[in-house]
Write a structure and sequence with these properties.
Layout: E1 5-10, E2 13-18, H1 28-43, E3 49-54, H2 77-85, E4 90-95, E5 98-100, H3 102-109, E6 112-115, E7 120-122, H4 136-144, H5 146-155, E8 159-160, H6 161-166, E9 172-173, H7 178-191, H8 210-220, H9 225-239, H10 242-257, H11 260-274, E10 291-295, H12 299-310, E11 314-318, H13 322-341, H14 347-357, E12 358-361, E13 372-375, H15 381-394, E14 400-403, H16 410-414, E15 423-428, E16 437-441, H17 448-460, E17 464-468, H18 474-493, H19 497-507, H20 513-520, H21 522-532, H22 545-551, E18 564-567, E19 570-573, H23 575-588, H24 597-617, H25 624-634, H26 644-651, H27 653-664, H28 675-683, H29 687-692
Parallel strand pairs: 2-3, 3-4, 4-6, 5-7, 6-9, 10-11, 10-13, 11-12, 13-14, 14-15, 16-17
Antiparallel strand pairs: 1-2, 7-8, 15-16, 18-19
The structure holds 3-hydroxybutanoyl-coenzyme A and 1,4-dihydronicotinamide adenine dinucleotide (NAI).
Domain 3-hydroxyacyl-CoA dehydrogenase NAD binding: 292-467
Domain 3-hydroxyacyl-CoA dehydrogenase C-terminal: 473-566, 602-685
Pfam families: 3HCDH, 3HCDH_N, ECH_1
Length: 696
């Protein structure tokens, strides 16, 4: 035995206790120790049953994800599960915390399962681009039936213990020490003469409409392979003998293991955790934050206030006048009503948040005691600097002063105060109480504990916080401008906005860029074009037709008309758009050409990767993974591609560079390759190498 699994006997029961913190992942050493534990129990003359339990916060969180992509080492997990199930001893699993993936598969190989009331179980492999690979797709349906198994496996959700018991996955839910409860269960089973009960010997599940289920899951996954493939694996459990079903599961698992999607999903898993892990903040304590001020209660301010309230913070919101204050309170109430209706909030808490925790005022003096303020007033430097001068006058020393500006220079805003080192950007995304991304934008003069406070606030609000330096648009909006420009150029040259949207939803985006513009409001980009016009380089190609739409008051969804027409739930391309586009092409002397969906995707992605590489090269983003997480959590980038720079690595950095160089032959102003892209290609390195390098 290694120290990964402790062995002890209690009467006729041998206890195998996993000790692989933090979550008892099934590394090779753990698998081997479990095998040896089973051998030892079977060789132990007095032992008639085995209890498997986990130390620490979880039973088992699954296979060790860090081992994926490396040569597999024996004993393999499916063999371990088969060995446990085939044991002549009675095997009981006692589950607490989470039992996920291979962890649940180990439990399904036991003959009886007992769980703590707060335990959660699941087969989340689809979120890693995989399917369960150690019998989960064959054993689960034998306990729950095919329909429930398909739902649990394709959603990858964590199922609470009581529901798992109702579904037949767990035999009993009982509170207590997991080992004590499990021992009592095993001893009672032995006393009652209970027989071994291998799930593999249970009847196969009844069939369901497999093709319809497959099609439905495939559509929902927007191109993600693993959930749909999981349906086929469950189908095998209904149609094949157990051993053949296992072989089918193994084949699909191994095929998926070799896909880019698996690499993309696992990159996302680790990056999501690494993104807020900044070496410079390792020993910096954040400032305490319990009371938050929000300035402006429009779209963003109301969302930010909602998010803060839901995180248990008290909020003082300042608006310009009584009518605006009432509107702000109504917006927040609407957001909280939504949370109540979705079951995220009890009526009592809803009322307490709106009653005691929220104060909406018109006087800045009410901010005297807040620990942190987030300004979300109009995107106008004069308005913002006036607000910051007020904040400087009323806020207590040490309060963090943050702005939610999308584009403006935060250093300039900070300079309006006597305490620029306490000023930071906290850039939320709309709707702010829903979207997970938070860009923590750090001007040069900001002190580290203010940065740490931004990250701590993000964590408390359940956000994925990403550090960004100051530049026009920070990480996300600056990249968006680049890929959006590539899309606009394709429209001028011959593609339709609708072809572009379709090609990009095929790529896996939730929406194409033109549908996104309609949702955000075309007036936002219009205002930005006007802002940038005076400093624009004459070589830049900017279409005029979107301005014409805006001049006609067509701002997208909110006016019912934009790139698309919105009428009582129906969405159709707006025919006026192509009339305007064709007129502009004629005016510019452009002979339109066709763009295949593949070319659309490659150009769009090349623009995204190129700008992202510039952002990393300039140090605006610390690491490529920071950019990847911004796009994933703020811009609907498909998780199964991992992020734009992971996608670039999977294509080959040199391939993406070659695309850019090809496009540069038509327009060498827009398509200037990022120096970092050239450097990586020349050195035969990839973006992920920079994620692994120590931060400076
Ligand atoms: N393998 C390796 N490391 C793991 C892991 C796993 N399965 N699960 C979690 N970890 C690591 C995390 O990377 C993190 O490491 P860090 O501290 O160095 O950043 C640490 O454990 C703690 O994880 P979290 O920060 O995520 O802690 P939480 O409490 O928020 O969440 C969790 C715990 C719910 C277990 C979450 O980590 C999780 O969802 N893990 C993945 C579970 C999973 O997908 N299991 C299936 C694996 S695939 C499989 O089993 C294949 C089989 O069918 C053959
Ligand atoms: P909005 O127009 O919906 O709301 C602005 C609010 O600020 C209004 O309610 C207004 O009454 C109030 N206000 C103006 N001056 C004020 C003052 N001096 N004191 C107190 N309140 C004042 O604008 P929105 O969309 O909420 O944007 C706010 C900020 O957030 C802008 O800087 C914007 O760039 C940024 N942002 C917007 C996003 C979006 O999708 N709308 C996304 C991310 C950031």
């Amino acid at each position: 035995m290694t120290d990964m699994v402790a062995y002890e006997t209690h009467g006729a029961v041998a206890v195998l206790r996993l000790q692989n913190p933090p979550v008892n992942a099934l590394s090779q050493a753990v698998r081997q120790a479990l095998m040896q534990g089973m051998d030892r129990a079977e060789a132990d003359p007095g032992v008639r049953a085995v209890l498997i339990v986990g130390d620490g916060r979880a039973f088992i969180a699954g296979a060790d994800i860090k081992e994926f992509g490396k040569p597999p080492r024996e004993p393999h997990l499916p063999d371990l599960c088969d060995r446990i199930e085939a044991s002549p001893l009675l095997v009981v699993a006692s589950m607490h915390g989470v039992s996920l993936g291979g962890g649940l598969e180990v439990a399904l190989s036991a003959h009886y399962r007992i769980a703590q009331p707060e335990a959660r179980i699941g087969l989340p492999e689809v979120h890693l681009g995989l399917i369960p690979g150690a019998g989960g797709t064959q054993r689960l349906p034998r306990l729950t039936g095919a329909k429930a198994a398909v739902e649990v496996i394709t959603s990858g959700r964590h199922v609470p213990a009581d529901e798992a018991a109702r579904l037949g996955i767990i035999d009993r839910v009982e509170a207590g020490d997991p080992q004590a409860v499990g021992l009592a269960c095993a001893q009672a089973l032995l006393a009652s003469g209970a027989a071994r009960r291998p799930v593999s010997e249970m009847p196969a599940p009844a069939p369901i409409d497999w093709d319809a289920t497959y099609a439905k899951v495939l559509k929902k996954g927007r191109g993600q392979l693993s959930p749909a493939q999981a349906v086929r694996a469950v189908q095998a459990s209904a149609e094949l003998p157990f051993a053949d079903g296992l072989a089918a599961e193994r084949r699909i698992f191994q095929e998926l293991m070799a896909t880019d999607q698996r690499q993309g999903m696992i990159h996302a898993f680790f990056s999501e955790r690494a993104v807020s892990n900044l070496s410079e903040l390792a020993s910096v304590a954040p400032r305490a934050v319990e009371a938050v001020g929000v300035i402006g209660g429009g779209t963003m301010g109301a969302g930010i206030a909602t998010s803060a309230l839901l995180a248990g913070l008290s909020v003082v919101l300042v608006e310009r006048g009584q009518t605006a204050a009432e509107a702000a309170r109504a917006r927040i109430a609407g957001n909280l009503d939504g949370a109540l209706n979705r079951g995220k909030l009890t009526q009592e808490r809803h009322d307490a948040l709106l009653g005691q925790a929220l104060e909406v005022v018109t006087d800045y003096a009410a901010l005297a005691d807040v620990d942190l303020v987030i300004e979300a007033v109009f995107e106008d430097m004069a308005v913002k600097t006036a607000v910051f001068a007020e904040l400087d006058a009323v806020c207590k020393p040490g309060a963090v002063l943050a702005t939610n500006t999308s584009y403006l220079d935060i250093g300039e805003i900070a300079a309006q105060t006597s305490r620029p080192s306490d000023v930071i950007g906290l850039h939320f995304f709309s709707p702010a109480h829903v979207m997970k991304l938070l860009e923590v934008v750090v001007p040069d003069q900001t002190v580290p504990d203010v940065v740490a406070t931004g990250f701590a606030l993000g964590k408390r609000m359940g956000k994925v916080a990403v550090r960004s330096g100051v530049c026009d648009g920070f990480i996300g909006n600056r990249i968006m401008r680049a890929y959006r420009t590539a899309a606009d150029h394709m429209v001028l040259d011959g593609a339709t906005p609708f072809e572009i949207d379709a090609a990009l939803t095929d790529f896996g985006f939730a929406m194409g860029p033109f549908a996104v513009s309609d949702l955000a409001g075309l007036d936002i980009a219009w205002a930005m074009r006007k802002r940038l016009a005076p400093t624009r380089d004459p070589r830049e190609r900017v279409g005029r037709y979107p301005d014409t739409l805006c001049e006609a008051g067509e701002f997208g969804r909110k006016t019912g008309k934009g790139f698309y027409l919105y009428d009582a739930g129906s969405v159709e391309p707006n025919p006026e758009v192509m009339e305007l586009v064709m007129a502009e092409r004629a005016e510019r002397g452009i002979t339109p050409r066709g763009f295949s969906p593949e070319e659309i995707q490659r150009r769009y992605m090349a623009a995204m990767v190129n700008e992202a590489a510039k952002i990393v090269g300039e140090g605006i983003a610390r690491r490529p993974l920071d950019v990847d997480m911004v796009l994933l959590f703020g811009y609907g980038f498909p998780r199964y591609h991992g992020g734009p720079l992971k996608w670039a690595d999977l294509q080959g950095v040199d391939t993406v560079l070659a695309d850019i160089e090809t496009y540069a032959r038509e327009d060498d102003f827009f398509w200037q390759p990022a120096p970092l892209l050239r450097q990586l290609a020349a050195e035969g390195r990839c973006f992920d190498d920079l994620n692994k390098a120590p931060q400076t």
